[in-house]
Amino acid sequence: MPIDNNEELFPIVDEDGHITGAATRGECHNGSMQLHPVVHLHVFNSKGELYLQKRPDWKDIQPGKWDTAVGGHIDLGESVDIALEREVREELGITDFTPTRVCQYVFQSDRERELVFVHTTTYDGEIAPSEELDGGRFWTVDEIKGQLGNDVFTPNFENEFEQYILKTL
Known about the structure:
With 169 residues, the protein is of the alpha+beta class.
């Protein structure tokens, strides 16, 4: 079974995204609240359905929940755009897409603080979820709305969907 590498180095940033230091994944996810950057991509098809990934049970954060199509940490020394391309390729096998930047915001849970760079794209090609995921599928917006608050989705996805993604539709 795969596991997250707790020694992986992440940049520590201020709320504007300027790097102020570095810390390991383990340090960032242990309740230290060190702000670290991540990228998210919401993948719509031309019918307006939204692809969601299923987080595997071995993940250290929100195992077994449905989540944003692509979500990943920005590596130390990596730009937002390069991280987005890498994560989309690694998680879904997509190499040809045109992202639109929606926003950036700070998300905080009881274990971590993330500076989230949110993007959307429309994509009708093949999606090949990697072993980092427990699969995925397209959901209608009404299906998603019907499951909000039922512990089906990650809190981060629910917040982002309601605060930012619905406004882009």
